[in-house]
Specification:
The chain has a seven-stranded mixed β-sheet, with helices on both faces. Strands 8-9-11-10 form a four-stranded antiparallel β-sheet. It has about 450 residues and is an alpha/beta fold. The chain starts with a helix and ends with a helix. It folds into two domains: about 240 residues, Aspartate Aminotransferase, domain 2 (3-Layer(aba) Sandwich), CATH 3.40.640; about 120 residues, Aspartate Aminotransferase, domain 1 (Alpha-Beta Complex). The chain is built from 13 helices and eleven strands.
C-alpha cells in the first residue's frame, strides 16, 4: 500500500509541473522543523484507523484511491485550483468537463446532457432533486424504503413532500406499491436506486420506466454506489436489464469516490436535458468576467470546489477508460464475483444464513439461530471477534417484514434483525474471499 515508488513519482511530476511557471523565485516562510513534529503526531494519530486500504477490510464502503488518482490529486493541490470559475481553474475545469462527458457516455448519453462534479453523492442528489422540484413544483418525491436516508432529508431541506415506497423481499422497490402512489397524481419524481448502500440491491428501473406511459413523472437514478456496475458483464440477466435502461432516466448521480478509485470528495450529477441549466441561471459580477465560455459555477449549486478532484478523476480515466471489457469493467466484474463467492460460502455452511443473492458486491448474512434477537446478538459478537482477528466487517439492521421466505422458520421477536454486512468493493477482494471465510469460521468456532 505504501511504497517508495509512489513518492519518487510524485517528486518527478512536481518537478515537471514547476517548469510551467518560469517566474521570479520567492520563498514562503516555513518552519520545517515544527512541521515535521506536527506531522509525526498526525501520523501516529492516523494509526487509530481500521485498515481501510486492505482486502481484510470488508466493512463500510471504503475503497483506496488508485495511485494515479492520489498522485494527480496531490500535484493539483500545489496549484489548488477552484473549479467554480475558469480563471481559478484554467486547466482543471476543462478536465472536469472531459471527465463528466466520459461518465455520461458510460451511461449512453452522447450529447445534449449537462453535468458537473460535486463534493459527494449527497450534494449531487440534492441538485438532482432541486431540479426535479423546479420542473415539477410542489410534487412529491418518492424512493424505496431502503434508499439512502439523505433523500428524505434533502426533500425536507427543499420543502418538497416525500414518500417511501415499500420494498420486496429482495430489497428492491415494489412495483405495485409504486403504481398505487403514482395513481394519486401527486408524484413528480421517482428515485430509482441502482445499488442500495445497505444491501446493494438494484431497483427495477426498466419496470419503473414502463409506468411513464401511463403517468407523468421524472426518473432520477441514484447510482452513487452502483453506477460503475453498468460496465460489468457478469451481472444476472435481470439486473443487467435495469442497468441497460439507465440512459432513459432524466438525471443520474454517481460517486467516483466509491467504485471509481477516487479520493473522497468526488461525486457527479448529470442531467439528460441540458435545458435544465435555466434553473441555475444567476450572475456573479466579480467571478464570471474572464471568459465568455460557461463557467462550472454557473451550472452548480456549490460554489468553491476542489479542482484537484477533477484532475485526479481525469487522470484515472486515462488509465482506466470506461469501456466494456476494459480494466475498469473487469474490476467491477471482480467485485461482483467476490460477492457471489462469499454468498456461496455462506449457503454451503448450515451455521450461517444469507438474505439473498447479491446483485452487486454487498453481501448481507448472519449466524443462524432460532430467533431474530438471538441472530442479532450472535452477529454483534462475531463482528467484534472478527475485528480482533484483523477481519473487519460491518453490521446492518434489516427490517423483519422484508425477510425472505427461507427465514420463515426463524422466530420474529423483533422488528429488525442485525446482520453482518460485507462490502467487497476492492478489486483484490475476489482473491481474498478464501482468507476472509477462513478467518470468519476460525473466529466462529472459538
Amino acid at each position: 500500500m505504501f511504497n517508495d515508488q509512489e513518492t519518487e513519482l510524485i517528486k518527478k511530476c512536481l518537478a515537471r509541473l514547476e517548469k510551467g511557471f518560469p517566474l521570479p523565485e520567492f520563498k514562503a516562510e516555513v518552519n520545517w522543523t515544527e512541521i515535521e513534529k506536527i506531522l509525526s503526531v498526525v501520523a501516529e494519530k492516523m494509526q487509530d484507523n481500521f485498515p481501510y486500504f486492505h482486502p481484510l477490510y470488508a466493512g463500510q464502503m471504503l475503497k483506496p484511491p488508485h495511485p494515479v488518482a492520489r498522485i494527480a490529486y496531490a500535484m493539483a493541490m500545489y496549484i489548488n485550483p477552484n473549479n467554480h470559475a475558469l480563471d481559478g481553474s484554467r486547466a482543471s475545469s476543462p478536465m472536469e468537463r472531459e471527465a463528466v462527458v466520459l461518465l455520461a457516455e458510460m451511461f449512453g448519453w452522447r450529447d445534449g446532457h449537462l453535468g458537473h462534479l460535486t463534493g459527494g453523492g449527497t450534494m449531487a442528489n440534492l441538485e438532482a432533486l432541486w431540479v426535479a422540484g423546479q420542473s415539477h413544483p410542489g410534487r412529491k418525491i418518492v424512493a424505496s424504503e431502503l434508499s439512502h436516508y439523505t433523500h428524505e432529508r434533502i426533500t425536507a431541506v427543499l420543502g418538497l413532500p416525500f414518500e417511501k415506497i415499500p420494498c420486496d423481499h429482495s430489497g428492491r422497490m415494489e412495483m405495485t406499491a409504486l403504481e398505487e402512489a403514482l395513481k394519486s397524481g401527486e408524484v413528480g419524481t421517482v428515485v430509482v436506486t441502482m445499488g442500495t448502500t445497505g444491501t446493494g440491491s438494484v431497483d427495477p428501473l426498466a419496470e419503473v420506466l414502463e409506468l411513464k406511459s401511463n403517468y407523468s413523472f421524472r426518473v432520477h437514478v441514484d447510482a452513487a454506489y452502483g453506477g460503475y456496475f453498468v460496465l460489468a458483464e457478469n451481472l444476472s440477466s435481470e439486473t443487467a436489464i435495469h442497468f441497460a435502461a439507465v440512459h432513459n432516466a432524466d438525471s443520474i448521480v454517481i460517486d467516483p469516490h466509491k467504485h471509481g478509485l477516487q479520493p473522497y470528495g468526488c461525486g457527479c450529477v448529470i442531467f439528460k436535458d441540458a435545458e435544465v441549466g435555466k434553473f441555475y441561471k444567476h450572475d456573479s459580477p466579480y467571478t464570471y468576467f474572464t471568459s465568455a465560455e460557461l463557467h462550472l459555477g454557473e451550472i452548480s449549486l456549490e460554489c468553491s470546489r476542489a479542482g484537484a478532484a477533477a484532475v485526479a478523476l481525469w487522470a484515472t480515466l486515462q488509465q482506466f477508460p470506461l469501456d466494456k471489457g476494459g480494466a475498469m469493467a473487469q474490476g467491477m466484474e471482480r467485485c461482483h464475483e467476490a460477492g457471489l463467492l462469499l454468498y456461496n460460502k455462506i449457503i454451503s455452511d448450515d451455521r450461517f444464513i444469507p438474505l439473498f443473492v447479491p446483485e452487486t458486491d454487498i453481501v448481507i448474512w448472519a449466524p443462524r439461530a432460532g430467533s431474530l434477537k438471538e441472530i442479532s446478538a450472535k452477529s454483534k459478537v462475531l463482528f467484534h471477534d472478527c475485528a480482533q482477528n484483523d477481519l473487519h466487517l460491518a453490521l446492518f439492521n434489516y427490517p423483519a417484514h422484508l425477510l425472505p421466505d427461507h427465514w420463515a422458520a426463524i422466530r420474529r421477536d423483533s422488528e429488525y434483525v442485525t446482520c453482518l454486512r460485507s462490502c467487497l468493493m476492492k478489486w483484490e477482494h475476489v482473491d481474498w474471499v478464501e482468507e476472509i471465510w477462513a478467518r470468519t469460521v476460525t473466529v466462529f468456532e472459538k
